[in-house]
Design a protein that fits this description.
single chain, three-stranded antiparallel beta sheet
Length: 227
């Protein structure tokens, strides 16, 4: 090496992954006179090694410097095209490479959105009451999570503990009523007033079921035989 600040790149365990439209390998970077080597420089050297015209189709990540310095090891991916990189790469690496834009949201808003969508286990303490209505629980949850529309809150599956005074159930808070209608089962939508129940008698349901049943064996032959 003529330049004291230069580095040497070696690749190993190279695999051609046709399903993900890329070559993938482990990169060893030798840099005895430097603390670290930038990803941009590594990508540029890889483009010359593999004769890649578009640097954006090369992704390098996960570099760790060995104990004592002078050598780093990481991973490299070379996609067939930039579109393939956009298709298969995780979003954070696309943002790092400048192929996607980062949505700047506060940690608080992300946490609130996550908590709204996840299934909550609800403990209700009611020492002086036998049960607490679902409507009252939904109202209290709307105040806790600052939800304006009560119909986007679904609570169900409450069971009172032995001895009374405490019940446990589940709660879901959807982003909108339309999401609730899309993902909730019909019986819970009927219970919440978001769907109408089709009132049919037991007799009519049984007759419809019998009509739909497939005739088998002797009954099928009798039905097919002429009178």
């Amino acid at each position: 090496m003529s330049d004291s600040k230069s580095c040497t790149i070696r690749t190993r365990k190279c695999i051609v992954n046709k399903l993900l439209a890329r070559k993938q390998f482990i990169i060893d970077v030798l840099h005895p006179d430097r603390a670290v080597v930038s990803r941009a420089e590594i990508s540029e050297k890889l483009s010359k090694m593999f004769k890649v015209s578009d640097l954006q189709s090369i992704v390098v990540f996960g570099f760790r410097t060995h104990f004592g310095g002078g050598r780093s090891t990481g991973f490299g991916l070379i996609y067939d095209s930039v579109d393939d990189a956009k298709k298969f790469e995780p979003k954070y690496r696309l943002v790092r490479a400048g192929l996607a834009t980062k949505v700047d949201t506060s940690r608080k808003s992300r946490k609130e959105k996550k908590n709204k969508m996840k299934k909550q286990i609800i403990d209700v303490l009611h020492p002086d009451r036998a049960v607490v209505s679902r409507a009252e629980i939904s109202e209290k949850l709307s105040k806790m999570f600052k939800v304006s529309d009560l119909q986007s809150i679904v609570v169900f599956g409450f069971r009172t503990h032995f001895g009374g005074g405490r019940s446990t159930g589940f709660g879901l808070i959807y982003d909108s009523v339309d999401d609730a209608k899309k993902f909730e089962p019909k019986y819970r939508l009927v219970r919440a007033g978001l769907a109408t129940k089709v009132d049919t008698s037991r007799k009519s349901r049984k007759e419809k079921k019998n009509k739909m049943k497939k005739q088998r064996g002797l009954g099928k032959r009798k039905k097919a035989a002429p009178a």
